[in-house]
Amino acid sequence: MANPVGSFIWYELLTSDVDGAAAFYKAVVGWTFSAHSDPGAGGMDYRMIQRDDGGMAGGAMQITQDMAMGGARPCWLPYLNVEDVDAAVHAIVAEGGREQLPAFDLPVGRIAMVADPQGVPIYLMKPVPPAGQTDSTSDVFSVTENQHVRWNELASPDQAASMAFYGKHFGFEFNDKMPMGDMGDYCFIGHHGQTLGAIMQRQSDQQPAVWLFYFGVPSIAAAKSAIENNGGKVLMGPHEVPGGDWIVVAVDPQGAGFGLVGPKGD
């Protein structure tokens, strides 16, 4: 794919109930999960998540018993674009990260999972573009569009270390920040002319060390009601953020955390 190295090129939901998650996110975000597992997923129950415009928002994987016994819990995970998966794994492990899933090949590309030195899980991927589409790009992230991830946020156990890590390995730049008083600085992620999100200091050891993704919706008020009416729980918000959008942070019925961003709505 023609996305720059370090781009967020895919998002994946690990869930204990893929059919339940499908119903929930349909009601809240409007996505449609494929009814059957993707045949290229190596035998896993892996569903594609489709937007209304026909594009893909990401994938959803059913957590197996073996995965659960190994510590897997419902969460959303990012795929970051790298030039060489094996070299990236080696470099991250050498810096204190951990290999969680050794590199393997699928028709869509070479993939591995690591935990960064602060314990945050991420996928690394070297995509294989579709036949005849060597310049195709991933569009799962968009700063403006509904049913896309619009913001990538990390509340890190060690903000300074995370900024140094993602800057070194993925080309993130941190030239702008928003002071938040006792909570420290909200440091924006610049990457090839886009603002991808931000990294902040985690405020409590109870906060999970995972990336949080904000999905675009046309009405935060309507989405909040959908969360509460379909078994989810709102943890924060709604409240307004700079620029005029509104956000909520929530967990789905299976326990995966996520955010929503969009107009306030009625």
Biggest sheet strand line-up: 2-3-4-1-5-8-7-6
Strand content: 35-45%
Number of separate domains: 2
CATH class of the largest domain: Alpha Beta
What's the CATH topology name of the largest domain?
A: 2,3-Dihydroxybiphenyl 1,2-Dioxygenase, domain 1
State the shape.
globular
Account of the 3D structure:
The protein has 266 residues and is of the alpha+beta class. The protein has 5 helices and 16 strands. The protein has helices at residues 18-28, 65-69, 85-94, 159-170, 220-229, and strands at 8-15, 32-33, 46-50, 56-62, 75-81, 98-106, 109-115, 121-127, 149-156, 177-179, 185-191, 194-201, 211-216, 233-240, 246-251, 257-262. The strands form 2 sheets. An 8-stranded mixed beta sheet has the order 2-3-4-1-5-8-7-6, with helices on one face. β10 (177-179) and β11 (185-191) form a beta hairpin. The longest helix is centred in the middle third of the chain and has 12 residues, at 159-170. The chain starts with 7 loop residues before the first strand and ends with a strand. The mean pLDDT is 93.
